[in-house]
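Subject: mismatched residue count in predicted assembly?

I count 472 residues in my input, but I want to confirm that the predicted structure covers every chain. Input:
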Amino acid sequence: MPKDSLAALTKLVLDFRAARDWKQFHTPKELAISLVVESAELLEIFQWKQGVELDQAVAKRRTEIADELADCLHSILLLAHDLKIDLGEALFEKMNKMEEKYPVAKAKGKPRKYNELE
Amino acid sequence: MPKDSLAALTKLVLDFRAARDWKQFHTPKELAISLVVESAELLEIFQWKQGVELDQAVAKRRTEIADELADCLHSILLLAHDLKIDLGEALFEKMNKMEEKYPVAKAKGKPRKYNELE
Amino acid sequence: MPKDSLAALTKLVLDFRAARDWKQFHTPKELAISLVVESAELLEIFQWKQGVELDQAVAKRRTEIADELADCLHSILLLAHDLKIDLGEALFEKMNKMEEKYPVAKAKGKPRKYNELE
Amino acid sequence: MPKDSLAALTKLVLDFRAARDWKQFHTPKELAISLVVESAELLEIFQWKQGVELDQAVAKRRTEIADELADCLHSILLLAHDLKIDLGEALFEKMNKMEEKYPVAKAKGKPRKYNELE
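Triage response: the counts match. Full output below for your records.
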């Protein structure tokens, strides 16, 4: 199976869920909770560290990081599916909005929110 | 461009970033912060609500939800790219681990963590 | 020592930190990361559960909940101290703003954000 | 009213809630969601920034930071009250556990989790 298509990845997580009869627990709200909890587990890997200590943590814990990213993608795919949101389309639309909010001429090289740009 | 492939979506966010010279701000740690912040914005949409009030919020704020999901996917794609993690592969591997942690016979119909299953 | 005063609790966490020479790691940004990570660990306790399953989790994991709340308070006390924010005063001021945003006549019995009130 | 006692601050948030009849929405799970959402809003203030840009954000947005800290404390006080957890006592107990996990001799000057200490 192609591992690069959202459709294939979505099928993977739907089959897993169907086999366990877990859809009943997967309200959008619970899936959003799940996404926050997993994102925070990812962030925890980088916590307190800077510079060399941080680089070492990233190198040493790469499998954990991949696992947490997969967990996050998992929740996103289910949420999008259940709410009938086309995730690829949503990203394209979002990037269009971002192009307007962050025009290259103003945003280039600046770590600022759009409302802080001059 | 196909909107269903991780490769195409990754190219989309990389081009956006390159044009703004933002890679310098996108350490894995900052991208993980970003993912948590956006996940929490998604969760905020469902906050305090249950039942009918919740269903109404989901219906009314569907575009916002799609936007937040796109934001989360955005951060995940960048993080995976920068750390040379194959996201599709990572999800397949994670689901294999989940198959072991949550065998159908034990987990079916139960909203529990693997360490709470009997 | 009185365990009910913010001053006494702040002294407790400052002494712990000074003994370990950890102030160098405690930038406001890192402490905010810490607060998010700990809050998400608290939320994780309630994840996926509703009704009886949820009540049982709360009853059974009360010590863990107290620990996570203490962790969160810990980060808040350090952040407030380091930024010279009077936390008690900040709460009083915030509640004043909340009184205006959520007048009793409009907000009573409604699980809504102030911008959703009629 | 003394603004430094947990009892006084708890009374403040309880009175606010009672006047709006909001206890019905304040399950421990919802309050934990609230705490995560508010913590992430705090973290958002520090997002993307380092060095001088970060220091400037902290200085310029001090009132917002105080507001977010107050929001977090608000949720913590309600959660502790509703679950009959003595928050001051919980912090003292937690710090005792931390003393054991992070003995000064091993932890001094190291930004590591207890399971990473040598």
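The helical segments of chain D are 6-20, 28-46, 51-60, 62-82, 87-101, 104-107. Marking this ticket as 'not a bug'.
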